[in-house]
Amino acid sequence: MIDEKDALIIEMLSKNARTPYLKIAKILNISETAVRKRIKKLEEKGVIEGYTIKVNPEKLGYKSVAHVGIDTNPNHFLKVACRLTEMQDVKCVAIVAGGHSIMADIWAKDSKHLEKILNDIKNMEGVISINPSVILERLKS
After folding, report:
1. How do residues 62-79 score in pLDDT, each as one tens digit?
2. Among 8, 22, 23, 132, which lies 20 to 30 A Cα-Cα from 75?
3. HEC readout, the chain
């Protein structure tokens, strides 16, 4: 579906979504127009779904960041997942296979704030258990 040049474009944009097309063109030894056309095709095929920024939560005052595994009663699974998406401090919600049915990323101002958020989740109807893992240091994201 994609060739080596497309894969390199994706890799470069993944590292920095603001990489200039001219820089990509020089690295791939193709024209800027060719880069634009390749990126447009990748977008149309749904390979590239959008562009985003990477935010450092600590620089915004979030001192406690955690990945939280959440287990629910099967009858409340979707309701809990939807409620999590509505919580301001829950930055990512994913339905997963494995140890837990839902994984959520939480940004909290401090440990007390994190504790409050975790208690709010724990007290949701249908939640069986929560398993937080507090991030001490991010090595790669």
Report:
1. 999 999 999 999 999 999
2. 132
3. CCCHHHHHHHHHHHHCCCCCHHHHHHHHCCCHHHHHHHHHHHHHCCCCCCCCCCCCHHHHCCCEEEEEEEEECHHHHHHHHHHHHCCCCEEEEEECCCCCCEEEEEEECCHHHHHHHHHHHHCCCCEEEEEEEECCCCCCC
